[in-house]
Amino acid sequence: MIQLNNVSKFYPAGFGRVYVLRNIDLDIAQGEFVSIMGPSGSGKSTLLHILGLLEEPSEGEYLLDGRPVQKLSEKQRTELHRTQIGFVFQAYHLIDELTVYENIETPLLYKGLSGSERKSRVAELLDRFNMVAKKDLFPAQLSGGQQQLVGIARALAARPTVIFADEPTGNLHSDQAREIMELFLELNKKDGVTIVQVTHSEVNAEYGSRIVRLKDGWLELEKLAQ
Ligand SMILES: Nc1ncnc2c1ncn2[C@@H]1O[C@H](COP(=O)(O)OP(=O)(O)OP(=O)(O)O)[C@@H](O)[C@H]1O
Question: Could you tell me the distance, in angstroms and rounded to a whole number, from the CA of residue 168 to the centre of ligand 1?
Protein backbone atom coordinates (compact mmCIF):
# COMPACT_ATOMS: atom_id res chain seq x y z
CA MET A 1 0.00 0.00 0.00
CA ILE A 2 2.83 2.34 1.01
CA GLN A 3 6.22 2.12 -0.59
CA LEU A 4 9.12 4.49 -0.06
CA ASN A 5 12.09 4.01 -2.35
CA ASN A 6 15.32 5.69 -1.37
CA VAL A 7 13.57 8.69 0.14
CA SER A 8 15.65 11.50 1.60
CA LYS A 9 14.71 14.83 3.07
CA PHE A 10 17.12 17.71 3.53
CA TYR A 11 17.06 21.40 4.23
CA PRO A 12 19.55 23.97 2.97
CA ALA A 13 22.04 25.04 5.62
CA GLY A 14 24.75 27.57 4.81
CA PHE A 15 26.38 26.33 1.61
CA GLY A 16 25.38 22.75 2.26
CA ARG A 17 22.44 20.66 3.35
CA VAL A 18 21.28 19.15 6.55
CA TYR A 19 19.77 15.72 6.08
CA VAL A 20 16.78 14.80 8.20
CA LEU A 21 15.99 11.51 6.42
CA ARG A 22 18.45 9.44 4.46
CA ASN A 23 17.78 6.77 1.83
CA ILE A 24 14.66 5.41 3.44
CA ASP A 25 13.20 2.23 1.96
CA LEU A 26 9.96 1.28 3.64
CA ASP A 27 7.04 -0.93 2.66
CA ILE A 28 3.81 -0.95 4.62
CA ALA A 29 1.07 -3.35 3.60
CA GLN A 30 -2.63 -2.66 3.88
CA GLY A 31 -3.91 -3.68 7.32
CA GLU A 32 -0.56 -3.29 9.10
CA PHE A 33 -0.15 -1.40 12.37
CA VAL A 34 3.33 0.10 12.36
CA SER A 35 5.02 2.02 15.17
CA ILE A 36 7.87 4.39 14.32
CA MET A 37 10.32 4.97 17.15
CA GLY A 38 13.62 6.77 17.59
CA PRO A 39 15.33 9.48 19.60
CA SER A 40 14.17 13.08 19.52
CA GLY A 41 15.22 14.75 16.27
CA SER A 42 15.76 11.46 14.42
CA GLY A 43 13.21 12.39 11.74
CA LYS A 44 10.09 10.53 12.89
CA SER A 45 7.61 13.38 12.41
CA THR A 46 9.20 14.31 9.09
CA LEU A 47 8.78 10.72 7.89
CA LEU A 48 5.15 10.64 9.05
CA HIS A 49 4.44 13.98 7.37
CA ILE A 50 5.85 12.66 4.11
CA LEU A 51 3.74 9.50 4.41
CA GLY A 52 0.66 11.63 5.18
CA LEU A 53 1.30 13.93 2.20
CA LEU A 54 1.88 16.93 4.47
CA GLU A 55 5.48 17.28 3.26
CA GLU A 56 7.34 16.23 0.15
CA PRO A 57 10.52 14.22 0.01
CA SER A 58 13.60 15.99 -1.38
CA GLU A 59 14.69 12.84 -3.21
CA GLY A 60 13.32 9.39 -3.87
CA GLU A 61 9.93 8.00 -4.68
CA TYR A 62 6.71 7.52 -2.72
CA LEU A 63 4.17 5.08 -4.12
CA LEU A 64 0.74 5.04 -2.50
CA ASP A 65 -1.34 2.14 -3.81
CA GLY A 66 1.17 1.92 -6.63
CA ARG A 67 0.71 5.55 -7.65
CA PRO A 68 3.76 7.83 -7.58
CA VAL A 69 2.65 10.61 -5.26
CA GLN A 70 5.05 13.24 -6.63
CA LYS A 71 3.52 12.95 -10.07
CA LEU A 72 -0.01 13.67 -8.89
CA SER A 73 -1.48 17.11 -9.43
CA GLU A 74 -2.24 19.27 -6.39
CA LYS A 75 -5.92 18.53 -6.93
CA GLN A 76 -5.39 14.75 -7.03
CA ARG A 77 -3.27 14.92 -3.92
CA THR A 78 -5.88 16.92 -2.02
CA GLU A 79 -8.49 14.41 -3.11
CA LEU A 80 -6.32 11.54 -1.88
CA HIS A 81 -5.88 13.35 1.39
CA ARG A 82 -9.57 13.83 1.87
CA THR A 83 -10.63 10.34 0.93
CA GLN A 84 -7.90 7.97 1.98
CA ILE A 85 -5.84 9.53 4.74
CA GLY A 86 -6.63 10.47 8.33
CA PHE A 87 -4.07 12.37 10.40
CA VAL A 88 -4.03 12.51 14.21
CA PHE A 89 -1.81 15.07 15.96
CA GLN A 90 -0.30 15.09 19.41
CA ALA A 91 -1.76 18.52 20.13
CA TYR A 92 -5.19 17.49 18.75
CA HIS A 93 -5.46 20.51 16.36
CA LEU A 94 -9.19 20.84 16.92
CA ILE A 95 -10.93 24.05 15.93
CA ASP A 96 -11.60 25.90 19.19
CA GLU A 97 -14.63 27.80 17.89
CA LEU A 98 -16.43 24.66 16.74
CA THR A 99 -18.31 22.18 18.90
CA VAL A 100 -17.37 18.51 19.15
CA TYR A 101 -20.07 17.71 16.62
CA GLU A 102 -18.88 20.37 14.18
CA ASN A 103 -15.23 19.38 14.52
CA ILE A 104 -16.04 15.80 13.57
CA GLU A 105 -18.25 16.95 10.72
CA THR A 106 -15.62 19.27 9.18
CA PRO A 107 -13.89 16.77 6.84
CA LEU A 108 -17.29 15.68 5.55
CA LEU A 109 -18.21 19.16 4.37
CA TYR A 110 -15.77 18.78 1.46
CA LYS A 111 -17.01 15.38 0.43
CA GLY A 112 -20.28 16.39 -1.12
CA LEU A 113 -22.32 14.14 1.19
CA SER A 114 -25.96 14.91 1.86
CA GLY A 115 -26.86 16.55 5.16
CA SER A 116 -28.52 13.39 6.43
CA GLU A 117 -25.54 11.20 5.51
CA ARG A 118 -23.22 13.61 7.35
CA LYS A 119 -25.49 13.57 10.35
CA SER A 120 -25.60 9.79 10.50
CA ARG A 121 -21.82 9.43 10.18
CA VAL A 122 -21.14 11.94 12.95
CA ALA A 123 -23.79 10.31 15.14
CA GLU A 124 -22.21 6.90 14.60
CA LEU A 125 -18.76 8.18 15.64
CA LEU A 126 -20.13 10.05 18.67
CA ASP A 127 -21.84 6.88 19.72
CA ARG A 128 -18.82 4.66 19.17
CA PHE A 129 -16.58 6.99 21.18
CA ASN A 130 -19.14 7.56 23.96
CA MET A 131 -19.21 11.27 23.23
CA VAL A 132 -22.91 11.78 22.54
CA ALA A 133 -23.43 13.79 25.74
CA LYS A 134 -20.48 16.03 24.83
CA LYS A 135 -21.47 16.83 21.28
CA ASP A 136 -22.36 20.48 21.91
CA LEU A 137 -19.30 21.26 24.02
CA PHE A 138 -16.25 23.11 22.75
CA PRO A 139 -12.74 21.55 22.85
CA ALA A 140 -11.69 23.68 25.83
CA GLN A 141 -14.50 22.07 27.85
CA LEU A 142 -13.07 18.56 27.36
CA SER A 143 -10.24 16.62 28.98
CA GLY A 144 -7.12 15.92 26.94
CA GLY A 145 -8.19 12.32 26.38
CA GLN A 146 -11.62 13.40 25.20
CA GLN A 147 -10.09 15.99 22.86
CA GLN A 148 -7.93 13.29 21.34
CA LEU A 149 -10.97 11.05 20.90
CA VAL A 150 -12.56 13.89 18.94
CA GLY A 151 -9.33 14.23 16.94
CA ILE A 152 -9.49 10.54 16.08
CA ALA A 153 -13.22 10.65 15.32
CA ARG A 154 -12.54 13.55 12.96
CA ALA A 155 -9.72 11.61 11.29
CA LEU A 156 -12.09 8.67 10.80
CA ALA A 157 -15.10 10.63 9.57
CA ALA A 158 -14.15 10.38 5.91
CA ARG A 159 -13.55 6.62 6.34
CA PRO A 160 -9.88 6.65 5.43
CA THR A 161 -7.95 3.47 4.69
CA VAL A 162 -4.93 4.66 6.65
CA ILE A 163 -4.43 6.69 9.82
CA PHE A 164 -1.16 8.48 10.52
CA ALA A 165 -0.78 9.45 14.17
CA ASP A 166 2.03 11.64 15.49
CA GLU A 167 2.48 10.84 19.18
CA PRO A 168 -1.27 10.64 19.66
CA THR A 169 -0.95 10.04 23.40
CA GLY A 170 2.00 12.35 24.03
CA ASN A 171 -0.08 14.73 26.14
CA LEU A 172 -2.17 12.12 27.93
CA HIS A 173 -2.12 10.21 31.22
CA SER A 174 -1.37 6.52 30.98
CA ASP A 175 -5.03 5.46 31.43
CA GLN A 176 -6.15 7.76 28.64
CA ALA A 177 -3.21 6.64 26.53
CA ARG A 178 -4.21 3.00 26.97
CA GLU A 179 -7.77 3.81 25.90
CA ILE A 180 -6.51 5.46 22.71
CA MET A 181 -4.15 2.57 21.95
CA GLU A 182 -6.95 0.02 22.50
CA LEU A 183 -9.08 2.04 20.11
CA PHE A 184 -6.34 2.01 17.46
CA LEU A 185 -5.97 -1.73 17.90
CA GLU A 186 -9.71 -2.20 17.42
CA LEU A 187 -9.76 0.04 14.34
CA ASN A 188 -6.90 -1.96 12.93
CA LYS A 189 -8.16 -5.44 13.77
CA LYS A 190 -11.90 -4.98 13.33
CA ASP A 191 -12.17 -2.29 10.68
CA GLY A 192 -8.95 -3.13 8.84
CA VAL A 193 -7.65 0.45 8.99
CA THR A 194 -3.91 0.63 8.37
CA ILE A 195 -2.23 2.54 11.20
CA VAL A 196 1.17 4.20 11.31
CA GLN A 197 2.02 5.88 14.59
CA VAL A 198 5.04 7.75 15.90
CA THR A 199 5.66 7.12 19.56
CA HIS A 200 8.29 7.54 22.25
CA SER A 201 6.66 4.88 24.38
CA GLU A 202 7.75 1.23 24.12
CA VAL A 203 4.42 0.25 25.68
CA ASN A 204 2.46 2.05 22.97
CA ALA A 205 4.79 0.80 20.26
CA GLU A 206 4.02 -2.79 21.24
CA TYR A 207 0.40 -2.32 20.19
CA GLY A 208 1.70 -2.27 16.64
CA SER A 209 2.42 -5.41 14.66
CA ARG A 210 5.81 -3.98 13.63
CA ILE A 211 8.23 -1.43 15.03
CA VAL A 212 10.55 0.54 12.76
CA ARG A 213 13.33 2.59 14.29
CA LEU A 214 14.98 5.76 13.04
CA LYS A 215 18.37 7.02 14.10
CA ASP A 216 19.90 10.23 12.75
CA GLY A 217 17.59 10.02 9.76
CA TRP A 218 18.52 6.42 8.91
CA LEU A 219 16.10 3.55 9.18
CA GLU A 220 17.63 0.84 11.30
CA LEU A 221 17.49 -2.73 10.07
CA GLU A 222 14.43 -4.42 11.45
CA LYS A 223 14.94 -7.24 13.88
CA LEU A 224 12.90 -10.30 13.08
CA ALA A 225 10.48 -11.38 15.77
CA GLN A 226 11.79 -14.24 17.91
N1 LIG B 1 11.96 23.26 8.19
C2 LIG B 1 13.08 22.75 8.71
N3 LIG B 1 14.29 23.29 8.46
C4 LIG B 1 15.43 22.77 8.98
N5 LIG B 1 15.46 21.69 9.78
C6 LIG B 1 14.28 21.10 10.07
C7 LIG B 1 13.04 21.58 9.56
N8 LIG B 1 12.05 20.78 10.01
C9 LIG B 1 12.64 19.83 10.79
N10 LIG B 1 13.99 20.03 10.82
C11 LIG B 1 14.95 19.22 11.57
O12 LIG B 1 14.77 17.87 11.26
C13 LIG B 1 15.13 17.04 12.36
C14 LIG B 1 14.09 15.97 12.56
O15 LIG B 1 12.88 16.56 12.99
P16 LIG B 1 11.59 15.67 13.33
O17 LIG B 1 10.55 16.59 13.89
O18 LIG B 1 11.22 14.87 12.16
O19 LIG B 1 12.17 14.72 14.48
P20 LIG B 1 11.41 13.76 15.49
O21 LIG B 1 12.18 12.48 15.46
O22 LIG B 1 9.97 13.71 15.16
O23 LIG B 1 11.67 14.50 16.86
P24 LIG B 1 10.78 14.57 18.21
O25 LIG B 1 10.75 13.18 18.73
O26 LIG B 1 11.56 15.49 19.06
O27 LIG B 1 9.43 15.11 17.79
C28 LIG B 1 15.32 17.97 13.55
O29 LIG B 1 16.70 18.08 13.81
C30 LIG B 1 14.77 19.28 13.07
O31 LIG B 1 15.45 20.38 13.60
Answer: 17
